[in-house]
Amino acid sequence: MAHYRFGLGIALIVLILFLPACGTIFPTPTPSPAPPTFTPTPSATSTPTPTPTPTPIPTSTLTPTITLTPTSTQAPNTILTIRAWIDGISHIIIKRDTVRWYQMGADAPGRWNHAIKATYLNGKPWYPEWPDKPDTRNRDCYCQSSQYVGIAPLSPVAQTVRLELIQARGATTIDQQPSSHNDYTLVILFDDGPPGGPEWYEIKVYYYSAH
What we know:
Elements: H1 2-22, E1 78-86, E2 88-95, E3 98-105, E4 119-121, E5 124-126, E6 143-149, E7 162-167, E8 171-176, E9 185-192, E10 199-207
Antiparallel strand pairs: 1-4, 1-10, 2-3, 2-9, 3-6, 4-5, 7-10, 8-9
């Protein structure tokens, strides 16, 4: 028993002497590093794009001006009777106190097959002169005749001229009414299309004249 206590004492002394030299038998655990603190990057603040205010369309304060073509209030007081030998397409043009022909297709009025026949204005014969190129027929010439002067003047006002057909084989119509756009000129179309050959046409023209 004495030997046991002696051995235990020796062991205790050795342990006491050994610990300071070797340090602790069980190392002190190293504490785990604290997790890094995550600081979120502040997101950029989106600045809303301002919505442009639309510019209103300006409203005109002006009242539109409407120009009306004046129309004669006078009833037609003049009659012009026209009688002509027509072959093809011809226009008769009346302006103020003058009359002339304009020939487009086939032979000129009164000149079919080289004949020379008059145009009658209120029964008075008128023999219009033509360029006669290449010959006296003036076929398809797109040309004008000489001018007759002396009818009751077509007044230079906007008016509605009226036609009365006395004799006609083809179409006879007013191609242009007198107005400011044509310097108050009346144009009448004679269209003696097929069949071939000439025919007598007679019309009455009702218009206003301030004579």
